[in-house]
Design a protein that fits this description.
The chain is α+β, with helices and mostly antiparallel strands and 596 residues long. It has 17 helices and 25 strands. The longest helix is centred in the middle third of the chain and has 19 residues, at 310-328. The structure holds adenosine-5'-diphosphate (ADP) and magnesium ion.
Length: 596
C-alpha cells in the first residue's frame, strides 16, 4: 500500500483510543475538567454502566459560547500556552484532547454558561462532527452529556467488561476523586438511584467509609508528614488490615490519581516485615509537591509521572508511612470471648486476637505515662525514641510501639515464654521473637556496614538443584554484603567459608537454602528491599525453633533483645511475636470485674 495521510476522522479515533478506553475514562476526563473549572458540585449520571449515558454536570466557571466549538477540537486548551508551561502544570488537564476524543467516539452534547453571559450555549458533536452552536437557557457551569459511547467503533464495545465491572470502575474512580477533593460535593446517579453522595465538608474519613465501609474507615491510620517541599497526607491501613492484591493502593500527586510503581514500592517497603507475604495494604495517600519537581507529561492518561528527585520522594514516602505505622502497631490482645475456645483457625484475626484496637482516639494510653490520646502525641512519642536517621535514642520507651519491661516467668511447651508486664501477662513465641531479634540486629549491622563475619573451621560444601543455584548465583553479591563468604565450587555447588557472627553455630547449608526457597520474581528493582527480604529469610531459618528448650539465661536474653527492637511485636514476616492478656481481661475472666 502507498503511504497516505489518514483522514482526520480516523486519526482522531486512533488518538481517542489512548484516552477513552472505557466508560470510566470518560468519567475521569469530564470530572477532571469540572475540577479544573473550580466546581464545588459535580453531579454524574450514568445509564447502562455508562454505555448509553454519561453526564457530568458542574457549577464551575463554564465555557464562553464563542469558545465552545474550539473546546471540542483537538489540541485546544485554555490551560497551557507555551511548551515551558508544561513544567508548571497546576491543572489536571493540559493536553486539550479529552473533549475531542470523547466527541469522536460518541454522541456528545455540551451545554455551558459563563457568569457574565445571560444565556448558555449548546454544542452537539456526533462521531466527531460538530453541529452549529445554539443558544439555550442554562445555569452557570457546564454539562457534558455523552450518549452511546463507541457507537461508531463497535470493535471497542467488544472490549468492555460486564456492566458490574464497568460500574465498579466508575464508582471506584469517583470515590477516589471524592477523597482527593473532600471539599467538593460529588454525586453519582445510576438511572434514578443515587449511588454515591459526598458532603463536600472536607471530612475525608466519612468518604473513606463510603469507599471501604465504616469498619475499615475507623481502623485506617492517618498520615501527615512534611519535609522540604513535600507533603504527604491521607490514610493507610494498620498491619492487621490487608488485601491480597494491590488494587486498593491509591496515590494522588498534586490532586492527580496516579499508578506510580516507585510510590507503590516505597509504600510496600514501609510495610516490609510487618505484613505477611502476599498481603498488601489499603491506602489513600495524597502527595503534594511543587509542580516543577514532577513531570506529568509522560503518559497519555497521565497515570504515570516522573520525579525530578526520585530518591528523595521515595525516601520521604517510605519514612513517613513507616513512622505512622510503627506509631500505631498495637500488641495483639486476647479478647475475652475467645478464652476457652480451643479451635484455632489459621487466620490470626479469627483466633479472636483483637488486632483492631481502635485508632480514632480511643486507644487507651496509660494516663500515668503522662500522655494524651491524640494520634499526634503518639507519633511524637515514637519520634522521641529515634533520631532522623533511625538510630535509637536512649531514654523512655514509647508505650505504643515498644513492649514494656517484662519479668520472665518461664518457658512452656518448649515454644513460648511467659512474662509479666505492668499491664498483664505476655505470651511470647520464641521462634517469632528470635526471628525479629536476629533480623533487626542483622539489618542494623548491615546499615552501619559492619557485619562481623567468622570463618568456618572447615568450609562447608552445599549442592543445590539447578534452578535454585541459578537464583543463588544472582544473590551472591547480597550474601557477601551480609557477612557470608560463599563462592561457586563447581556446577550447582557452593562453598561457604564464613558466616556472620550473629549466626554462629547455625548451619550454613540451612542459610543458603533459606535464600533460595520461595523465591519469587521480585517486582522491585530496589536492592534495599531485596536485601531485607533475604535477611528475613535467613533469620527465619536460623532462629530458635519451637520445641527447643532454652536455658533461663537464653530466655532472659531473648526477652531483653526483644525489648530493644524497633518493631518487637511482629516477626519479619508479619506474624505476631506476642499475645497480651491484660489485667483487665484476667479480672473479667475471673468474674472479678464487670458483668459476664
Ligand atoms: P484540557 O482539559 O486538557 O484542556 P479538554 O479537551 O478536556 O482539554 O477540554 C478543553 C477545554 O475546554 C479546556 O481547556 C477548558 O477550557 C474547557 N472545558 C472543558 N470542560 C470544561 C468544564 N467542565 N468547565 C469549564 N471549561 C471546560
Ligand atoms: Mg481535560
Amino acid at each position: 500500500m502507498p503511504i497516505r495521510l489518514l483522514s482526520s476522522e480516523v486519526s482522531s479515533q486512533i488518538a481517542a483510543g489512548e484516552v477513552v478506553e472505557r466508560p470510566a475514562s470518560v468519567v475521569k476526563e469530564l470530572t477532571e475538567n469540572s475540577l479544573d473549572a473550580g466546581a464545588k458540585n459535580i453531579s454524574i449520571s450514568i445509564a447502562d454502566a455508562g454505555r448509553t449515558l454519561i453526564e457530568v454536570a458542574d457549577d464551575g466557571h463554564g465555557i464562553p459560547s464563542s469558545e465552545l466549538e474550539l473546546a471540542a477540537s483537538r489540541h485546544a486548551t485554555s490551560k497551557l500556552v507555551q511548551s515551558e508551561d508544561l513544567f508548571h502544570i497546576r491543572t489536571l488537564g493540559f493536553r486539550g484532547e479529552a473533549l475531542a476524543s470523547i466527541g469522536s467516539v460518541s454522541q456528545m452534547t455540551i451545554i455551558s454558561r459563563v457568569e457574565s453571559a445571560k444565556e448558555g450555549a449548546r454544542l452537539r458533536v456526533n462521531g466527531g462532527v460538530s453541529e452549529k452552536v445554539e443558544k439555550v437557557g442554562a445555569p452557570v457551569g457546564t454539562v457534558v452529556r455523552v450518549e452511546n459511547l463507541f457507537y461508531n467503533v463497535p470493535a471497542r464495545l467488544k472490549f468492555l467488561k460486564t456492566d458490574t465491572t464497568e460500574r465498579r470502575a466508575i464508582d471506584s474512580l469517583v470515590t477516589r476523586y471524592a477523597l482527593a477533593y473532600p471539599n467538593v460535593r460529588f454525586k453519582i446517579t445510576d438511572g434514578k438511584q443515587v449511588t454515591l453522595q459526598t458532603a463536600g465538608d472536607g471530612d475525608r474519613r466519612a468518604i473513606l467509609a463510603s469507599l471501604y465501609g465504616v469498619d475499615v474507615a475507623k481502623q485506617m491510620l492517618e498520615v501527615m508528614a512534611t519535609e522540604e517541599g513535600l507533603t504527604l497526607t491521607g490514610f493507610i491501613s494498620p498491619v492487621s488490615l490487608t488485601r491480597s492484591n494491590r488494587k486498593e493502593i491509591t496515590f494522588f500527586i498534586n490532586g492527580r490519581w496516579v499508578q506510580e510503581i516507585s510510590l507503590n514500592s516505597a509504600l510496600l517497603q514501609a510495610y516490609h516485615t510487618l505484613l505477611m507475604v502476599g498481603r498488601y495494604p489499603l491506602t489513600a495517600l495524597f502527595l503534594d509537591m511543587t509542580p516543577e519537581d514532577v513531570d506529568v507529561n509522560v503518559h497519555p492518561t497521565k497515570a504515570e509521572v516522573r520525579f525530578r528527585a526520585q530518591d528523595k520522594v521515595f525516601g520521604f514516602v517510605q519514612r513517613s508511612v513507616r513512622k505512622a505505622l510503627l506509631a500505631y502497631t498495637p500488641v495483639p490482645a486476647v479478647s475475652p470471648q475467645l478464652w476457652g475456645n480451643r479451635s484455632v483457625p489459621s487466620e490470626p484475626r479469627a483466633v479472636g486476637i483483637d488486632w483492631s484496637i481502635a485508632h480514632d482516639g480511643q486507644l487507651s494510653v496509660n494516663s500515668d505515662e503522662g500522655r494524651g490520646t491524640s494520634s499526634e502525641l503518639q507519633v511524637t512519642g515514637y519520634e522521641s525514641r529515634f533520631t532522623d536517621d533511625g538510630s535509637k535514642v536512649e531514654g523512655q520507651k514509647s508505650f505504643e510501639t515498644g513492649v514494656p519491661l517484662l519479668r520472665l516467668i518461664g518457658q512452656i511447651g518448649s515454644a513460648y515464654l511467659v512474662a509479666e508486664g505492668p499491664d498483664g501477662l505476655y505470651l511470647i513465641d520464641q521462634h517469632a521473637a528470635h526471628e525479629r531479634v536476629l533480623f533487626e540486629k542483622l539489618m542494623a549491622q548491615h546499615e552501619s556496614k559492619s557485619i562481623p563475619s567468622q570463618s568456618l573451621l572447615t568450609p562447608e560444601v552445599v549442592t543445590l538443584p539447578p534452578q535454585s543455584s541459578k537464583v543463588l548465583m544472582e544473590q551472591l553479591p547480597f550474601l557477601n554484603h551480609f557477612g557470608f563468604e560463599v563462592e561457586e565450587f563447581g556446577t550447582n555447588t557452593f562453598q561457604v567459608r564464613a558466616m556472620p557472627v550473629l549466626f554462629a553455630g547455625g548451619s550454613p547449608a540451612m542459610a543458603l537454602k533459606a535464600l533460595v526457597e520461595d523465591f519469587e520474581e521480585d517486582e522491585s528493582p530496589l536492592a534495599a528491599e531485596v536485601e531485607a527480604r533475604l535477611a528475613a529469610r535467613v533469620c527465619k531459618r536460623l532462629a530458635v525453633k519451637a520445641g527447643q528448650a532454652l536455658t533461663p539465661e537464653e530466655q532472659r536474653s531473648l526477652l531483653n533483645d526483644l525489648e530493644v527492637c524497633q518493631s518487637p511485636r511482629t516477626c519479619p514476616h508479619g506474624r505476631p511475636t506476642m499475645i497480651h492478656l491484660s489485667v483487665d481481661t484476667l479480672e473479667r475472666q475471673f468474674g472479678r470485674k464487670g458483668a459476664r
